[in-house]
Amino acid sequence: MSAFDELYAIAAEAKRREGGGHRRDGWQGSIGALEMFDLRRISDALEAARQSEGQPLPEHYALPDYPGQAASLAIDGKTVGSHGLTLVDGDTCYQATAGVDGVTPALQVRPRRWLRPIGDEREAWTQFGDVQRTGAKALDRALVIRATSRRAAAVFLTPALIEQLVRLGSQVRSVTVRPEAGRTFVEVLVEVRDAARAEPGIALARAAYFAMQTLVATPGGFAEASEAAALELDDVLALVERVKETVAFLAGHVARVGDGVEARLELDEPAGLHAVLRVEPAAARELRATFRGDLPLPHITRATRLEPEVGFLKRAQGLVDPKVGDAALDRAFLIEGDVALARVALADPMAALRLAGRGGSLAIDAAGLSARVPRLALDDDALLEVVVALVASWREAALVAAGFAASSRQA
User: Can you say whether the dihedral through the CA atoms of 210, 216, 220, 226 is positive or negative?
Assistant: First the structure.
C-alpha cells in the first residue's frame, strides 16, 4: 500500500468515526452530503496525486509569483528561453521568449478585437506586413495574422498552435516571431491572474516554439507557386542585379532574404546613416517595395504621414489637411502631422511625385523615414523608377534634416 492509499484510508476512517459518534448536542449523527462531497474531493485529489507520483512538478509550480522575475523555459530537457510574469498596460501577463538558429520573416498573431485603437493597428502593419487570410472563415474571424508572406503564416499556424490559441481565446495578447542576428525568436503574451494559472500560457509557448522550429526548417523560402506570387529564380536574380545597379553609388550589399530581395544601404553624406530597402512578391507578376532609413532628427514625439490623395474620401480630406506650399505636392499627398516634417519627407519633389504616382506613401517618425509602395508591376522600368525615388527621397531628406544649405536637386 502506498503512502497515498494510507492517507486516504486514515482520512476516510476519521470521517466515518466523526459522523458515527455523538455530537455535542447529544444527537447521534451520520455523514452528511457536504461531508461526502469533501470525501469525494479528497479522493479525487489523492487519485490525481497517485497518477503523478514520481513525475516532475508541472512547470507553472516553479514560475515566479511576481512580475519582473523570470525562470528558464525548458522543452524536452533543454533550456530554450525564459518565461515569467510581466505587466502590460496594467494587466498581469504570462510572457515567454524562446529562440532557435535560422532566420524567418517576422509575423504576429493576435486575437481579433474589433475595437482595437487605430494606432495599434498601424504599428502592427508597419512592423509585420499585411493581414494574411487563412481561408478558414472561423479562424480569420478569431485571429489577425500579419506577415510579409502568406506561406510563412500558413506554415507557422500548426494544428497544435491553433488548438492552444482557440483554447485561450481573448486571453492571448500576441504571439510574435522576430528574426535577429541569425536567429529567430518567438514571444508569447497571455493575460493571467497569477503564476498558478499560467499552465495554459506555458502550453501555448511550447506550441509556438515547435511552430517556429517548423517555420525555420521549411525549405525553399516563403513563397508558393500556388499563391501566384512567387518569382521564378531567373526573375529573382534579375531583380537582384537591377537593385544592385540602382544603388551602386551607395555603400551596402544586396541579397535574397526569404521570398524577397533586401538592400542594406549607407550614405556617404551625411555619414553613418543606414537604410533597408526590401522588394518582394505581392501578387501575380507584382511586387511590393518598403523602405526604412535613418534621419538625424532627434526628439520626434509624433509621426507625420503622407498618403497619396486618391479616392473621393481622401480628396475631401485634402481640402482641409495641412499644406506645404507646393501646389503639385499638396494635390498629390494627404498630410497628417507636422508640416515641417512633411517638407523634410518631400525634400525631393520629383521623387515624391513619382512615388505618389505609384500609390506610394511616406512617413517620418522617431525611427527615421519610411516609405511603402504596395503594388508595383514586375517590370524593370517601373522597379527602377520606384527604387531611385525611394533612395533619392531618403538622401534629400537626410541632407535637409542635417542642415545642409543645398542639395543635389538644387544644383
Answer: positive
Q: How close are the terminal C-alpha atoms of the chain, in Å?
A: 95
- Cβ(362)–Cβ(352) below 8 Å: yes
pTM above 0.85, yes or no: no
pLDDT digits (tens, 9 = 90+) for 11-47: 666 666 665 544 444 444 454 555 555 666 677 767 7
C-alpha–C-alpha distance, residues 408 and 178, integer Å: 38
Find the length of the chain. 411
The three cell numbers of residue 2 are 502506498
Buried b or exposed e, range 193-216, using 16+ CB within 10 angstroms: eebeebbbbbbbbbbbbbbbbebb
Please give the Cα distance from 192 to 93 (Å, whole number). Answer: 5
- Helix/strand/coil (H, E, C) string of the chain? CCHHHHHHHHHHHHHHHHHHCECCCCCECCCCHHHHHHHHHHHHHHHHHHHCCCCCCCHHHHCCCCCCCEEEEEECCEEEEEEEEEEECCEEEEEEEEEEECCCCCEEEEECCCCCCHHHHHHHHHHHCEECCCCCHHHHHHEEEEECCHHHHHHHCCHHHHHHHHHHHHHEEEEEEEEECCEEEEEEEEECCCHHHCHHHHHHHHHHHHHHHHHHHCCCCCCCHHHCCCCCHHHHHHHHHHHHHHCCCCEEEEEEECCEEEEEEECCCCCCCEEEEEEEEEECCEEEEEEEECCCCCCCCCCEEEEECCCHHHHHHCCCCCCCCCHHHHHHEEEECCHHHHHHHCCCHHHHHHHHHCCCEEEEECCEEEEEEEEEECCHHHHHHHHHHHHHHHHHHHHHHCCCCCCHHHC
Residue whose C-alpha cell reads 487563412 in the numeric block: 134
- Candidates 156, 122, 154; CA nearest to 307 is 122
- Distance CA(87)–CA(68), nearest Å, equals 8
pLDDT digits (tens, 9 = 90+) for 200-223: 999 999 999 999 999 888 765 554
